[in-house]
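Exam revision sheet. Question 4 asks you to relate a sequence to its structure. Input first:
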Amino acid sequence: MKKMITILIISVMIGVCGYVQASTTFELSFRVLNNKKSERFDLYILLPKEYIEFAIKEANLEIDYEGVSTIKENTIPGIFIEKSKVQDEVYTENDQEYVPIRLEKENQVYSFEILKNYPKMDIKYRIKNIQKDYIVHIDNFKIESGKCEIEYDYQKDTIKQPDKKIMPTGVKILTILLVFLIIVSAIARAKARKN
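Answer key, structure tokens:
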């Protein structure tokens, strides 16, 4: 029984340590819906100059921002990219520079990691093909459980966060109690079998 409790405690500690380490970033998760004709397009994340300078400062690097070359020529912790995906020209909107990085879809989702302590949500997306060149602003979107989910309706050019099914607090407490009782029951049965 002591071994089972020790294993349970170690598992919880490993899970907590892994969560603490992973919590320095949050994930931007972008899903495209309603592309009925399966039109081909490129999706870019537009990283603002301020974010790049913030990542440089957080990493204690002595690098000056020089547009696209800042990311192409340097490895900056907090900006997790393939350098070949960085585009050659900056995008400018309202006198603010953005470095475009082409994203690849994985399991129907385009994902990108952002430093959690960056204070703004001024990162943008750009959807581009022959028919459209659309900029997606996500400045009022919420981050929940380390993820900011974005759904883009390709036909309507609208964005939203997916509807969340919220589990009532009472149900959460009952679920935790049920799991606890199952674990205690399993431990008791193992102990009874030994005796």
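Marking note for examiners. The first strand starts at residue 25 and ends at 33.
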